[in-house]
Amino acid sequence: MQRLQLEEGFRQSKRHAYRMCCRAALLKSTGLTSEQVGIQTEMANISVNFWVKRFEAEGIRGLETRSGRGRKPIMDSSDEEAVRKAIENDKQSVKK
Fold first, then answer.
1. Per-residue pLDDT for 21 more than 80?
2. pLDDT tens per residue, range 55-72
């Protein structure tokens, strides 16, 4: 069942990152080393191990990248006016 989901994800997903994660898990399940899988998927072997472990822990849904994670933006649209004024006041200084 899971193998079918991985194969379907690899063949039909529109997202490249998801396809590569599915492919990594599929290749690893055939007995290849992380280094060998990394060469075929152009991933670091650490990344291969990360995605395989995540697949084992969470199943196929674990291979979906989660948007919105990571660092929050330093500025948002509410800062636009302050940025414009700073640029107008000192066009040569990017730090302000």
1. yes
2. 999 888 888 876 545 567
Rounded to whole angstroms, how far apart are CA atoms 87 and 1?
58
pTM, whole model, 2 decimals? 0.64
User: Cα dihedral angle (13, 9, 52, 64), rounded to 10 degrees?
Assistant: 50
Q: Given its phi and psi angles, is residue 32 left (phi above 0), alpha (psi -120 to 50 degrees) or beta?
A: beta
Residue 56 and residue 49: Cα distance in Å, rounded? Answer: 10
For the chain, the C-alpha Rg in angstroms (whole number) is 21
Task: Specify whether the CB–CB gap between 38 and 44 falls below 8 A.
Answer: yes
